[in-house]
Amino acid sequence: MNTLEHAAGVAPDLIVPLVGFRQWRLAGGGLASVYDGAPWPEGRLSARCDRGHGAADVPAKDCSCGVYAYYDLVPRTSSAATADLVGGAVVVWGRIEAHMYGLRGEHARIVALELPLSRGRKRRAVIEAAERLGVPAVPHRSLKAAALEHGEVLAPALRPKKTLTRAANVWARNGPA
Ligand SMILES: [Zn+2]
């Protein structure tokens, strides 16, 4: 069941990498998708479709395939209370499907991770994961600036209009990732 707002999807033709924000789960010293547990080896992921779209068609317009990223920072509180959720920033490139609150991309690469406020095991794990990927681990307030060293935010004019209430929109909750 796919709850994306298909009718509003647009596919801008872009050259610069786009910046986005999302979360991962700390898993085995690396980072994995929150949605399906898929690993992000080397901090990268190329989209695959489990509904039959080939590599040349991902992300497909009427599908849920693609690597997900939000336009805006994921609230710090959505990772803070958990032992294993980590926020961070990506750049997305290749084919893009733009939605109201975020986009689905063909390829993505982690460019920064968000440092938890808490001391202790989780903070050390995030720092180690960032070092392994060769990306900075920065406080929430610095994440957007760190991301913008690598790409641009998709211009609001290129995003579908926000026609759904946030509560009704999968992107406003915990979108697939
Ligand atoms: Zn698909």
Structure description:
With 177 residues, this protein is α+β, with helices and mostly antiparallel strands. Helices cover 15% and strands 28% of the residues. The chain has one domain. It has helices at 77-80, 121-133, 140-148; strands spanning 18-27, 30-33, 44-46, 67-70, 85-98, 102-114, 137-138. Strands 1, 2, 3, 4, 5, 6 and 7 form a seven-stranded mixed β-sheet that branches. The radius of gyration is 15 Å and the shape is globular. Bound molecules: zinc ion. Zinc ion (ZN) is lined by residues 49, 51, 53, 58, 60, 63, 65.
Looking at this protein, list some descriptive labels.
single chain; 7-stranded mixed β-sheet; 177 residues; disordered N terminus; alpha+beta; binds zinc ion
Low-confidence stretches: 1-8
Topology as a string of helices (H) and strands (E):
EEEEHEEHEH
Count every helix, treating DSSP H or I runs of 4 or more residues as helices. 3
So what's the overall shape?
globular
What class, by secondary structure content? alpha+beta
- Count of domain modules: 1
